[in-house]
Amino acid sequence: KAVSGFLVVGRLLSPFQVNPRVIVDDLRNTAWKNQGVFTIQEVDSADGRFILNLAADNDRRFVLKSQPWHFKRDGLIFAEFDGNGDPEEVVLGVMAIWVQVRDLPYELKTESIGWSLEDQLGEVLEVSHRNHVIVEKFLRVRVKILLHEPLKCSIEITPLGCSKIFKFDVKYEKLPLYCECCG
């Protein structure tokens, strides 16, 4: 059935089934305090999907942009939904997350290096900078990671004019629980 509004489909990344109302109430009392009114609709699916119908587009953008969310340390992901079609067909196998590339020398801490990490980390959505200058101690890159792939713990960079490969550690921000064995 087609539904209109500012919709997102959500899913808890947990082996346990949890009522979506409990999840959303928890978020409403913590991270979503200033967000508007919304309704929850459960979806008959094997992975526990649900639909949030938000009152305003800026609320929907907030939910999507500030991911990943957490519920009891398990990840909670959302994807945009236009209200047409089957919410079970909405792709929820990726997570947008900020990655910090640590210990980069100053000359490698550039926006172009951040965009070039797509092959190693996943689709690059954003590189954190101010007026094209990286101001943090590390390079921050927002990427889409595939949930069925192991997390990368490092990246390799070969600077221009150099034949040596340098390895740099990465750290994920707001990383939910994940399998320590397979990543």
Structure characterization notes:
With 183 residues, the chain is α+β, with helices and mostly antiparallel strands. It contains four helices and ten strands, in the order E-H-E-E-H-E-E-E-H-H-E-E-E-E. The protein has helices at residues 20-29, 57-65, 111-115, 118-121, and strands at residues 6-13, 38-42, 50-54, 69-71, 74-81, 94-101, 123-127, 139-146, 154-157, 166-172. Strand 4 and strand 5 (74-81) form a beta hairpin.
Give the secondary structure arrangement, pairings included:
Layout: E1 6-13, H1 20-29, E2 38-42, E3 50-54, H2 57-65, E4 69-71, E5 74-81, E6 94-101, H3 111-115, H4 118-121, E7 123-127, E8 139-146, E9 154-157, E10 166-172
Antiparallel strand pairs: 1-3, 1-5, 2-3, 4-5, 6-8, 6-10, 7-8, 9-10
In short:
It is built from 4 helices and 10 strands. It has helices at 20-29, 57-65, 111-115, 118-121; strands spanning 6-13, 38-42, 50-54, 69-71, 74-81, 94-101, 123-127, 139-146, 154-157, 166-172. The strands form 2 sheets. Strands 2-3-1-5-4 form a 5-stranded antiparallel β-sheet.
Which characteristics define this entry?
4 helices, 33% strand, 183 residues, alpha+beta, 5-stranded antiparallel beta sheet
Q: List the helices and strands in order.
A: EHEEHEEEHHEEEE
Extended strand count:
10
Radius of gyration: 18 Å
Bulk shape: elongated
